[in-house]
Amino acid sequence: MGTRLLLFLPWLLLLLLLPSHAVTAFRFTVDDFPHDFTFGAGTAAFQYEGAVAEDGRSPSIWNTFAHSARNPNEHSGDIACDGYHKYKEDVKLIKDIGLTAYRFSISWSRLIPDGRGAINPKGLQFYNDMINELVKQGIQIHAVIYHLDLPQILEDEYGGWLSPRIVVAHWTTILEPNIIAQGSYDKGIAAPGHCSFPFGRDCTVGNSSVEPYLYLHYSLLAHSSVVGLYREKYQVVQKGVVGINLYSLCIYALTDSAEDIQATERANDFLFGSILHPFLFGDYPESMKKAAGVRLPSFSSYESKLVTGAFDFVGLNHYSSIYASNNPDASNMPVRDQAADVGALFRETRDGQTVTQYPAGRMVDPQGLEQVLKYIREKYGNIGIYIQENGRGQIDDDDDDLMDVERIDYLKKYITATLKAIRDGASVKGYSVWALMDMYEIFGGYKAHFGLIRVDFRNPRRQRQPRLSAHWYSNFLKNNATIQVESGAATATSHAQI
Ligand SMILES: *[C@@H]1O[C@H](CO)[C@@H](O)[C@H](O)[C@H]1NC(C)=O
Ligand SMILES: *[C@@H]1O[C@H](CO)[C@@H](O)[C@H](O)[C@H]1NC(C)=O
User: Fold this and answer.
1) How do residues 9-30 score in pLDDT, each as one tens digit?
2) Which residue in 14, 98, 250, 253 has a CA-CA distance of 20 to 30 Å to 79?
3) What residues make up the domain containing 217?
């Protein structure tokens, strides 16, 4: 009898300790993350720096695009946040919030105005000064290189530009090549605005059927060359890591039908597999090869070897989830879609929004992030991941948007999802909010606000003002405040301790 009681007791205790399903409160502090996990926030050169014609900088394709008729908003971004002049103030804000990492990008046209050749000393000075300021404050450097010749600069300027104090730099080569292929060369809604009829509006230059695949292919090759060079020449000294960035969505099948499930797999192959499959297996996924045929370039055996394993981590920009369904009426679709370039017909069903209505009204679905991380792990192995962008945008003309409780709610849910994914076995190493401050957003100009910090774009002095979300993030990072999320369904409201 005594033995039976002893066997029974632990089970009773366990039952008593298990939370009931009605009250699924999830509580944690920053201490619950791995000790080397980084929490940051980000900016991007063109959207942040301004000073477009100052100190020898030449225009970039985004300047041209923003001044062209193709730009859907009325702003040019020439001043942006005036970060070129205000970066010191911003590094102080970064420090005050308690961020451990700052993600920024390097403007090629500021550093090498002619594209190739001579380095602009003033451009170099700017990044040098900014990096030194960050290093002085103990902030980790997470730099994004949009343009791929940077290692040449590293070669020429190593030691001058890269202070030896920067050990463990995080380099991301290219931002979102998996979605930029569509935006820039298919629909023509992002610089340089290439498209061809009937896939974009008012197309003047481009070929939507072919160019997205060329862009994707050359991005992969260029990225992989950079990785090879970095590993060969700099990694040992710098002890840094190098990776690529992907735009990420959780894609749900619209229905349980086999067709929709297959459509979802195709969509995932195009979104993730277009990059990750070559990294792991040296080639594109079968479904892409089948859908795109000869328009998808093939890897030579040299290229295949170059691409395989060419990453230390993968960065994800993750905001939302969508539904995919099969389109059975292929005869009614333009030629390019018949070949199912995106593998499925993307559409958002909730709130009646379509994908093109970025950035407003997107689905808040933190479980989608967990699902994406699980999908990648199951399909491509437990690769190191940085969540490089996550955040909530508001289209807002209202001056008084400092009390951004909805942003806090969003961040809280996605940070919770990140921790849950880590506990589930995902190798997530960092999380970065988009954005540190309001910027010139690619879609929405000065009217789309993503910032923890508000920027007054109506005033040329561009004053910064931390929002409630900045204080909340700071409280989490610096004061060990508890986040508590009570959730039943994916869309349940959550209540936070802070
Ligand atoms: C795009 O390129 C393909 C292959 O070269 C060609 O067949 C097609 O006509 C081109 N389309 C346009 C709109 O130029
Ligand atoms: C942070 O808070 C948690 C939970 O309250 C506690 O266990 C932990 O010791 C705290 N850490 C620090 C550094 O105060």
Assistant:
1) 443 443 334 444 455 789 999 9
2) 98
3) 28-484
